[in-house]
Amino acid sequence: MAKFKVPKEIFHGLGSLENLKGLTGKKAVIVIGGSSVKANGSLERTENYLKEAGISTVVFSGVEPDPSIETVLKGAEFFTQEQPDVIVGLGGCSSIDAAKAMWIYYEYPDSKLEELAAPFAVKPMRNKAYFVAIPSTSGTGTEVTGLSVITDREKGTKYPIVSHELTPDVAIIDGDLCASMPKHVTANTGLDVLSHGVEAYVSNIADRYNDALAKGAIDLVFKTLPTVIEEPNNLEARQAMHDASCMAGMAFTNVWLGIVHSMSHQIGGTFGIPHGCGNAILMPNVIRFNSKVTNKYSELAALSGRTSAEEFAQEVSKLRASVGVVGSIKEYGVSQEEWDAKLDVLTQNAMDDPCTLFNPRKPKFEEIKAIFQACYEGRAITL
């Protein structure tokens, strides 16, 4: 028996931000990152629509990429001071992920990050507020997922907090908000969408509901990401990528992810490699590794007229290269000395990551290590 959990309301399409006027509440805290949502007018429009709904607003700003537990705790303290009954995550995935974690600490101040990272450890939410997610990047799908990834910089690792309790109540998928995304952000986040679709499709608890969404998202990425890179002001293409991100998010929040993410969480937390970039480096070799136990990659290969898992892995590599993303961890600038010193810790942390539980092939420590090493060097594996 399976469960399909998504936000109660999803508004999508160019101009859909206007649906904020229909929300109910008294006070909203809007969580943002830096200046981009101010510069492109998204924050002002959000505030104005909420005011039309009779909801007063205050802003918590300064969420950094790969949000830290320190920022989360500051935000929770701000929430406690302001006492909102609506929480709005506006911007890239970092802002929305951080807002979700702040929400947990607002409702449960004694929470501990390590404990929250255990599978399904989050207690019942919505005791004080409900959650609205408005993404301005087409990547993580966090606007429809029960996932928040928070970084402990002292330990150099990312902690994925996984719970359906964190699935937003309202998601707004407005491609107009993505028009100002720089090329490198568009590329990395678009490849992140691809990784979500692929890992959801081959999850060991995949089902036909989520397969349809995952496969549809993958198809959209291959057809649309190159267009968005070349034509950044093409709003229809922006909306298609935004929809793909949401579709992949709905898929993976219900059947979860695999070792691409288990491993990417580690190289992101340790070396600062952007999440989508890390996923794209790892994905072809994880496809090769997992293809020994599933034929579903061959089904995905058919989307581009191919027939085998190896051909699909190569198509992923070609797409990655075509949008200007590096093909190895070494190319990103991680030295051999740094890599050798951290490899065993990275491997063990990836083994312990909750996403590993849903990978179609159960990996051994030495197998994860071998995949890491091959991806550091930029060569194909044959495990």
TrEMBL record:
The keyword S-adenosyl-L-methionine does not apply. The keyword Transit peptide does not apply. Residues 7-174 form the Alcohol dehydrogenase iron-type/glycerol dehydrogenase GldA domain. Pfam families: ADH_Fe_C, Fe-ADH. Keywords: Oxidoreductase. Residues 186-375 form the Fe-containing alcohol dehydrogenase-like C-terminal domain. InterPro entries: ADH_Fe/GldA (IPR001670), ADH_Fe_C (IPR056798), ADH_Fe_CS (IPR018211), Alcohol_dehydrogenase_Fe (IPR039697), NADPH_BDH (IPR034802). One of its GO terms (molecular function) is alcohol dehydrogenase (NAD+) activity. Signal peptide: none annotated. Belongs to the iron-containing alcohol dehydrogenase family. This is Uncharacterized protein. It comes from Labilibaculum antarcticum.
